[in-house]
Design goal:
The structure holds 3 protein chains of 3 kinds. By secondary structure, chain A is mainly alpha-helical. Helices cover about 80% and strands about 0% of the residues of chain A. Chain A has a single domain, classed as MetI-like fold (Orthogonal Bundle), CATH 1.10.3720. Chain C is an alpha/beta fold. Classes of the chains: A mainly alpha, B mainly alpha, C alpha/beta. Bound molecules: adenosine-5'-triphosphate and magnesium ion (MG).
């Protein structure tokens, strides 16, 4: 066997890949479910907190800031391990999927809160004055005047952060979620061949490359808008 | 409540596990000392290539960056650590982490540096060239210092992310902070050691996060007017 | 007062932290009157206008607009505010909404009008300021003068009892100023009560019933445009008028 053939046999062994294709397909499904769930809850929670923060209740804001800081400072895997292995000891058992979903949602919420809040702050004070002078209430001014403008400038950072965190769903393999990476590593150890892992990596590229290209496009478009 | 404290904040267990965790913390710091400079250097190279005048180099850089931004760092790490041995390349966990993170971090730091370089108008480069500085000299002495200052908050917050990412090394059995904590957890059947690790990460990263927030506010305030 | 008073300000005080910027202002404006408020930068003109609809919270004193006390605790501020039109130096149009959207937002959300009804009102008000054909344009596609006229339409659509103008023309290129002044002149002819902070002396001479000079948080002197610009009682007024005349 030539070196090239050996390389192909190790990393692109079609027989091995087809054998584990159903498992990998299952993994894609789980990864997508997890990613969508994280994005929906994370962004909604983050936006909710940012709006709440606009009302400037001292105690509420304090809690939000602490929450955001902690979730930004901790590696998500630390939280995942604490919840996954710690909760059963006090009689609460969550599946790996639930734990990863919960932790990544909270992390995304923390980052999103910060980005949205920075967006709200960056809207010119005159917009608030104009809105309130026509009789709009605080909440109305926030929702109809300030938020739409804030949203526009937060799209690029939110997109980037969301992609980074949905990529992190691969961590599910550590707690047996059975997403793409989990399936791929299992298949690799069963088959004694690196092809499933290569396939898994390529699946991730196929899933996320369009998003990365999209984010690049968004960044350019909005930079151009600003100029 | 009693049970909650017992299972998550058991001080006796924490004290018992502390020496092991401190050792892990040392490895984590060592790892940071390796991957942060590597990533910064790689990122700088990526940014220079990405803003080069050669079109093919710019395109190649963009493909490199997008590829490594699309692939989860853990996938990359596991591929380097347990995929490459099939090709006869056997790496110890530390080197595997360094290589995987070099690729991943170069892409991210690279994008930040590139944004910084692009934020400096062509006028600066022209002025530098007009005084006789070479292309490289004007980059090195005029553009890069300003570019770096402009994106300092982003560089810092990405560094926070890099430090957090080192926890993934536990998956390939590198005995850093989280690995040590999880080992203690599996011996004691108690989550307190991991909570202690969390506190250590907080102690390490919270000051940095606050610092970044201060920086961002200062820059934002001046940019607002 | 004998005539019907639309705006009445009594012993109004306002502080930003330690700094007291309004130090007991008294001022009255009768129905259909147009008053000019002039004074050096930092004298508190903008602050005074913003107290009239409580965008700033005064520390003491009263403001009464069209018979209702704005400064009373527990008033329905939002319903009151829409009766007090306000026009800003920097227009403050909503950049994410069209001219029409800018005008209809409060009609729909404060006055709870249907979209069709609000669009109708907005169109006729935009026509009044000469911008009917710009209804679908976004602010960044409008000139400064056009933006300011949309801002006037936004306030006008809510049928205010009084309009407050805070340097409406000072951010405009000279050749665009007249478009805005023409709209203000038309408003005056239809009997709108107006309080205008501006240093457009020509406009003041031809249109203002009264000019008030403000300095350091108090109204120092007021009278007809003729008198204030020609023969003021106070030295400080004289010095200031001489400055802006150049
Ligand atoms: N939000 C604020 N916080 C603190 N101080 C303020 C604020 N707004 C205004 N001031 C201060 O209050 C004083 C009066 O300001 P104001 O804007 O009312 O003056 P003005 O007469 O409108 O001046 P200009 O002609 O420059 O617009 C100034 O000294 C100003 O610095
Ligand atoms: Mg002012």
């Amino acid at each position: 066997m030539s070196a090239w053939e050996r390389f192909l046999d190790t990393f692109f062994n079609w027989a091995v890949i087809t054998e584990y294709l159903p498992a990998l397909g299952q993994g894609v499904l789980v990864t997508c479910q997890l990613a969508v769930a994280v994005v929906l809850t994370g962004l909604a929670l983050g936006l909710g907190m940012a709006l709440l923060r606009a009302y400037r209740f001292w105690a509420v804001n304090f809690v939000i800031v602490i929450f955001v800081d902690i979730l930004r400072a901790l590696p998500p895997l630390v939280l995942i391990l604490i919840l996954y292995f710690g909760l059963p000891n006090i009689g609460v058992t969550f599946s790996g999927f639930t734990v990863v979903w919960l932790v990544l949602s909270l992390v995304l919420a923390a980052f999103a809160e910060e980005i949205y809040w920075a967006g709200v702050l960056s809207v010119d004070q005159g917009q608030w004055l104009a809105a309130r002078s026509t009789g709009l209430g605080f909440g109305q001014a926030l929702i109809f005047v300030v938020l739409p403008q804030a949203m526009r400038m937060t799209i690029p950072p939110i997109t980037n952060r969301t992609i980074a965190i949905t990529k992190y769903t691969a961590i599910g393999m550590v707690v047996g979620v059975g997403e793409v990476l989990g399936q791929a590593t299992t298949a690799q150890s069963f088959s004694g061949n690196a092809s499933p892992l290569m396939a898994g990596a390529l699946i991730y590229v196929a899933l996320f490359l369009p998003l990365v290209v999209l984010s690049r496009w968004i960044e350019k478009r909005f930079a151009w808008r600003r100029a | 409540m009693e049970q909650l404290i017992q299972q998550f904040f058991n001080v006796d267990l924490m004290i018992e596990a502390a020496p092991l965790l401190l050792q892990g913390l040392g490895t984590t710091l060592l790892l940071c000392l390796a991957v942060v400079p590597l990533g910064l250097a790689g990122g700088l190279g990526v940014a220079l290539a990405g803003t080069s005048r050669m079109r093919w180099l710019r395109i190649a850089t963009m493909v490199f960056v997008d590829f490594f931004r699309a692939i989860p760092p853990l996938v990359l790490l596991i591929f380097v650590y347990s995929g490459l041995p099939f090709a006869g390349v056997q790496l110890d966990p530390f080197s595997a982490v360094c290589i995987a993170f070099l690729l991943n971090n170069s892409a991210y730091y690279g994008e930040i540096f590139r944004a910084g370089i692009e934020s400096i108008g062509g006028g600066q480069r022209l002025a530098a060239r007009s005084t006789g500085l070479s292309a490289w000299q004007s980059m090195r002495y005029v553009v890069l210092p300003q570019a770096t200052r402009n994106v300092l908050p982003d560089l810092m917050s990405n560094t926070v992310e890099v430090v957090k990412l080192t926890s993934l090394a536990s998956v390939v059995s590198l005995q850093e902070l989280l690995y040590s904590a999880d080992m203690a957890r599996s011996i004691t059947y108690n989550a307190s050691p991991i909570v202690l690790a969390a506190l250590m990460y907080l102690a390490l990263l919270w000051p940095m996060i606050r610092l970044v927030a201060r920086f961002e506010r200062r820059l934002g305030a001046s940019a607002g007017i | 007062m004998a005539e019907e008073s639309i705006l009445s300000i009594e012993k109004l005080r306002l502080s930003y932290g330690e700094l007291e910027v309004l130090k007991g202002v008294d001022f009255d404006l009768a129905k259909s009157e147009l008053a000019f408020l002039i004074g050096p930068s930092g004298s508190g003109k903008s602050s005074l206008l913003r107290c009239c609809n409580r965008l700033e919270e005064p520390s003491a004193g009263r403001v009464i607009v069209d018979g209702e006390e704005v400064t009373a605790p527990g008033v329905n501020l939002n319903q009151l505010r829409r009766r007090i039109g306000m026009v800003f130096q920097s227009f403050n149009l909503y950049p994410h909404l069209t001219a029409l959207g800018n005008v209809t937002l409060a009609l729909r959300k404060v006055l709870k009008k249907s979209r069709v009804e609000a669009d109708d009102i907005a169109c006729s008000v935009l026509e009044r300021v000469g911008l009917k054909d710009k209804a679908g344009s976004y602010p960044n596609a409008l000139s400064g003068g056009q933006q300011q006229r949309v801002a006037i339409a936004r306030a006008l659509a809510l049928e205010p009892a009084i309009m407050l103008f805070d340097e409406p023309t000072s951010a405009l290129d000279p050749e665009l100023v007249n478009d805005v002044l023409a709209v203000m002149r038309e408003l005056r002819e239809t009997g709108m009560t107006m309080l205008v902070v501006s240093h457009e002396m020509g406009f003041a001479r031809s249109a203002a019933d009264r000019v008030a000079f403000m300095e350091d948080g108090v109204i120092v002197e007021q009278g007809s445009a003729e008198q204030i610009f020609g023969d003021p009682n106070c030295d400080r007024t004289r010095a200031f008028v001489r400055q802006i005349a150049h």
